[in-house]
Amino acid sequence: MLQTTVETPTGPMTLTEEDGAITRAEWGQGGVGDTPLLREAAAQLVAYFDDPVRGFDLPLRVEASEFQQKVCDAMLAIPLGETRTYGDLAKEIGVPAQAIGQGCGGNPIPVIIPCHRVLGANGLGGFSGEGGVETKVWLLKHERAAGLLI
């Protein structure tokens, strides 16, 4: 397991690579690693925080249950600048909305897998990342989805 830490406007974020794929993104300082994939992932993360339109094109692997993988796939399908509700994803996957909330909270690769784009039916919902809902709002504004918050 190799890691690199990137300074971002929302705090340091540590990216983890295992067997040629990014498997985790976590706020905070982590270990040190230098591989072509970690360099590329760090560069793409910096580019995203510079201009979110650049997006991500990285090999990802969600090492979790089949359900968690489905939730992450559904979040990855949400276009930049758009949001979905927990209920929207629940209908798509065929589970209760509360389960989607738990799946969003269990996202092992936040920002790259955009769990911040999933909102409650009547509000923001939660955010398990560093800074909580304030970081979620920052990311949505950064992606120019702020009109949805007003």
Automatic annotation (TrEMBL):
<feature type="domain" description="Methylated-DNA-[protein]-cysteine S-methyltransferase DNA binding">
    <location>
        <begin position="66"/>
        <end position="144"/>
    </location>
</feature>
<keyword id="KW-0808">Transferase</keyword>
<dbReference type="Pfam" id="PF01035">
    <property type="entry name" value="DNA_binding_1"/>
</dbReference>
<protein>
    <recommendedName>
        <fullName>methylated-DNA--[protein]-cysteine S-methyltransferase</fullName>
        <ecNumber>2.1.1.63</ecNumber>
    </recommendedName>
</protein>
<keyword id="KW-0489">Methyltransferase</keyword>
<keyword id="KW-0227">DNA damage</keyword>
<dbReference type="InterPro" id="IPR036388">
    <property type="entry name" value="WH-like_DNA-bd_sf"/>
</dbReference>
<dbReference type="GO" id="GO:0032259">
    <property type="term" value="P:methylation"/>
</dbReference>
<dbReference type="GO" id="GO:0006281">
    <property type="term" value="P:DNA repair"/>
</dbReference>
<dbReference type="GO" id="GO:0003908">
    <property type="term" value="F:methylated-DNA-[protein]-cysteine S-methyltransferase activity"/>
</dbReference>
<dbReference type="InterPro" id="IPR001497">
    <property type="entry name" value="MethylDNA_cys_MeTrfase_AS"/>
</dbReference>
<dbReference type="InterPro" id="IPR036217">
    <property type="entry name" value="MethylDNA_cys_MeTrfase_DNAb"/>
</dbReference>
<keyword id="KW-0234">DNA repair</keyword>
<dbReference type="InterPro" id="IPR014048">
    <property type="entry name" value="MethylDNA_cys_MeTrfase_DNA-bd"/>
</dbReference>
<dbReference type="InterPro" id="IPR036631">
    <property type="entry name" value="MGMT_N_sf"/>
</dbReference>
<comment type="similarity">
    <text>Belongs to the MGMT family.</text>
</comment>
